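Bug report

Summary: structure tokens for Transcription regulator of the Arc/MetJ class differ between web form and batch submission.
Environment: batch mode, default settings.
Steps: 1) Submit the sequence below via batch. 2) Compare with the web form result.

Sequence submitted:
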Amino acid sequence: MIFKRVGDGRPYPEHGLVTARDWSTVAPRQVRLIDLVTTKVTLNLDNLLAEDSTFYGDLFAHVVQYEGVMYLEDGLHRAVRAALAQRALLHARVLVLDSPEQG
């Protein structure tokens, strides 16, 4: 198993980070693939196979941690590449959102 779960959609509230510049304020760190829940059920093979897939975007995947679950919002192709290379870790920017109950 590569990921904790394959999800479809973003169960967390809107966070306002849209562009790579927005995300650049979140420091990158390593995350385990097995701890991630995807927010997409499909992967575009063009993204997976493109040599320059990060040329115009962020070098790091984008992860949102919400209610203790880590959701892979952007960078599914990076995560699959890491898995194909038999790496268990991925460098990602992790945005931690508190749920309303956690205040």
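Above is the batch result. After comparison, the two runs are identical; trailing whitespace caused the diff. The mean pLDDT is 87. The two ends are 34 Å apart (CA to CA).
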